[in-house]
Specification:
Belongs to the ABC transporter superfamily. This protein has eight helices and 22 strands. The chain is an alpha+beta fold. It folds into two domains: 4-239, Rossmann fold (3-Layer(aba) Sandwich), CATH 3.40.50; 245-353, OB fold (Dihydrolipoamide Acetyltransferase, E2P) (Beta Barrel), CATH 2.40.50.140. The protein starts with a strand and ends in an 11-residue tail after the last strand.
């Protein structure tokens, strides 16, 4: 296990980058705690896999350093970093049995036969392949082969870190939950430092202790699922986390008051923020109203998704979403929306700002 430090880390695939837009990975300075499980979450092209490949040694960064427990390993080859990596598509030895595939990393490191047998049997049970241990890998399905890849990553107990690059892409949907649960159990039992790359928020939020949200080559927030939901540090986090994502309203600020069009919103605190300002409110905190104060709104459709209803509304030409209970009636005369005070976030140039007297910051 290892504490992973990213020190002034940045990377460009161009030989002579001239500005921020030339960098696939913009400058990062972060410490990732020994023994925690992290998920790198973001849309395709945001820099997740680039960062993972730098940590694993498959790619050397243009700038900065990577340290394991304070030791600079930036130029160390992958073999010397003592990590296990599982890729998006399965990598198995077709001519070997499942048992031989799982045992391969341990045999390479000279473990004794009894220890190898114990670990292989345990991991075989974890990936639900005990009955196939003596079967050749050649004839197995893609999801079965990926389970072997996951198992080969899990079989070692002495690794500095386990790295997963979208490992469940080829897994059947009904197996994904089970494998995520097994990964969580592995982390609980052995305390490996784990980094899991995904674009799927459900995978990230159910797997990780901390989620690292990336956008445009930057880490915009590191936090628990609850922190990402309640206090998104960047408008992208609000949009990307949650289904539907956070609603954003262009606003002007005047102390405790925000103005959206002609409507006046009590912000619950005093704000002073330069630049383009917005109010962010998740659908769960939108209040449907008939008359009174608030923003003029028109219901355009209602989607019943089983556990709740998603109400789509037109608010001054922009579609926004609200969440209503499964048993709630949606009155035909709704013409306004309001905001629950505890659900209001204020943003300046896409970054969350705190009211005066509270701690403000760009990223958790």
């Amino acid at each position: 296990m290892a504490k992973i430090t990213l020190d002034n880390l940045a990377h460009s695939y161009l030989p002579n980058p001239t500005g921020p837009d030339d960098y696939a990975l913009k400058e990062l300075n972060h410490d990732w705690t020994d023994g925690e499980a992290y998920a790198l979450l973001g849309a395709s092209g945001c820099g997740k896999s680039t960062l993972l490949n730098i940590i694993s040694g498959l790619l050397r960064p243009s700038h900065g350093r990577v340290l394991f427990d304070g030791h600079d390993i930036t130029d160390a080859p992958t073999a010397e970093r003592n990590i296990a990596q599982v890729f998006q598509f399965p990598v198995v030895y077709d001519t070997m049995t499942v048992r031989e595939n799982l045992a391969f990393p341990l045999k390479n490191r000279g473990h004794d036969a009894a220890e190898i047998a114990r670990r292989v049997q345990k991991v075989g049970a974890m990936i639900d392949m005990e009955a196939e241990l003596d079967r050749k890998a050649r004839g197995l399905t893609a999801d079965a082969k990926q389970k072997i890849s996951l198992g080969r990553g899990m079989v070692r107990e002495d690794v500095n870190a386990l790295l997963f690059d979208e490992p469940l892409t080829v897994i059947d949907p009904h197996m994904k939950w089970e494998l995520r649960t097994q990964l969580k159990k592995l982390h609980h039992d052995f305390g490996h430092t784990m980094i899991y790359v995904t674009h799927d928020q459900t995978e990230a939020l159910t797997f990780a202790d901390k989620v690292v949200v990336m956008y445009d080559g930057r880490v915009v927030q590191i936090g628990t699922p609850q922190e990402l939901f309640e206090r998104p540090a960047h408008t992208f986090v609000g949009y990307f986390i949650g289904s539907p994502g956070m609603n954003l309203f262009d606003a002007t600020l005047d102390g405790r008051v925000g103005r959206v069009g002609e409507a006046v919103i009590d912000l619950g605190g005093h704000y002073e923020a330069p630049g383009r300002t917005q109010i962010g409110v998740r659908p769960e905190f939108i209040r449907l109203q008939s008359g009174g104060d608030g923003l003029p709104a028109r219901v355009t459709r209602v989607e019943d998704v089983g556990r709740h209803k998603i109400v789509r509304l037109d608010v001054m030409g922009t579609e926004i979403s609200a969440i209503a209970g499964e048993g709630d009636a949606i009155p035909a005369d709704i013409d306004r929306i309001g905001f629950a005070p505890e659900g209001i976030n204020v943003y300046a140039d896409d970054w969350r700002v705190a009211p005066s007297g509270a701690t403000a910051g760009k990223a958790a």
